[in-house]
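Journal club side-thread
Mid-discussion, someone asked how the predicted structure for our own chain would compare to the paper's figures. Pasting it here so we can look after the session.
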Amino acid sequence: MVLRTVASSAAILVGLAILGALAGPAWDPVPLTDTITPTATSTAIGGTDAGVAAGRVHPPGTFEVASTEVEIQLDGYRVSGLLREPVGAGDDLPGMVFIHGAGTGRWQDAFPEQAEQIASAGVVTLVPDKRLDTYTLWHRNYVSMAADYQHSVEWLRQVPGVDPDNVGLYAESEGTWIAPIMQAEDPRISFTVLASAPVVEPRRQAAFAVDNFLRNTNVPGGVFRAIPRTVGIQLPSGMLDYADFDVTPWLERQTSPVLVVYGTGDPSMPIVQGTRQIIADTAVGGVAPVTVRFYDGANHGLRVDDVVVPELSRDVAAWVQGLPETATAEPRIAGAQPEQLFLASSVPRPRWWGNGDIIIGSVIGGLALLLVGPLVWGATSLVRRLAAAGRGVPGARSTTRMARGVRPLLLALSVGSVATTVALIAYLMAVARLALNYEQDWLVVQGGWIGVRLLGVATVVALALLIGRARDLRDARRTGDAEAVFVAGWPARVTLWAALAGTASLLLWLAYWGVFQLGI
């Protein structure tokens, strides 16, 4: 009995492991072999001597800043913004429009240090709100967003004291997919600052970031299987339709100087690959020179210990005010040494379960099936009793039944599959929280994964015991035991097959995510 159960459980586990491996791609990122070596450790911008002598280049803190809340009319929509002007800086000043990353949408929450410090150096800055009525997690259109931000550029060009031919962009993170579109469509935009730019398509960047976050959290190797199977799926109805947006054609049409800034402590961006790609793709004709700066230990928001690195505003202000001399001045690439372990490569697409409808439907369908049997059995029993009570006679003994020991095994199988599914979802959410906060917790990361897999094994053992019980009853009937019936009555059969189908759906879903994979 024990050996049979062990053998059956092992066979089922191996089968689920094989199905899980065949159901989708593995994750095997390609190591990065090419690197970038800055030619100077100081990030100070070269070529500013002429600007300083001409009174065009000033450090942050030179001027007081007057801030004014404004409104900007878009096409059929209105946004607020904050205009910051350096008091007493003179006329024909450069202007800068800030473009949000994915984490912000209102001017109150975005770029407070950068916009203030750069304005105090003599640049008029405008932080508009992001248009949010057309911006959701599931649907975004970067070309349309560029058209919306263009209204802020036009608005800033009309501000007294601003040189309309010297208005540029400061874009961060997701915004760096938008700024090149704007500059390509409006060559009058005089400069672009790309901060923490992903450069590669959103799907590739997301996979790269998740990989780095998980490595930092020290998750078991099997968890990495989830990267291509989540990032690579195709969601229904055009959801995440922007995931494969390619900014390359827009970079190739740049006509104005570009300043690229990264923090070397940013694990979410391919900072070496991104830099190389911007240099290679930007203005293939060579008319848009690129300057690059790496800030030691700064994170995605270019902060160290929650403070924006002060050199950032100093360098951006000097580069903008010193144009055109600073656009081609040496050192072109300077700062701390950037590091990147793996390429942000194309994400392999899942084969069988590559559609998000199947991913979601298998869980919902499995849970629904597990509820069908008890509901059908309970409803038929209730109807039978009510009918008997209506006739005023005692209820006859029900012909619907399961053999001794079948019901608890079926209950254990159903509860086990649901518990393992819930535990896996909870585990992935806990790991995501740790990863996003750059935290490590061995008990959660390692212990949680072991716990999820043990629940899965226990569920498979329940299935093996149920199969063994069915074999015993079959053998008993062959020897003439007429009472050795596995289930009797259609409600019992519905309950049995609905539970088996629901459990199978959940077990295949768990196998897809690697719960039953061989090894660690």
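Post-session note: The longest strand covers residues 162-172.
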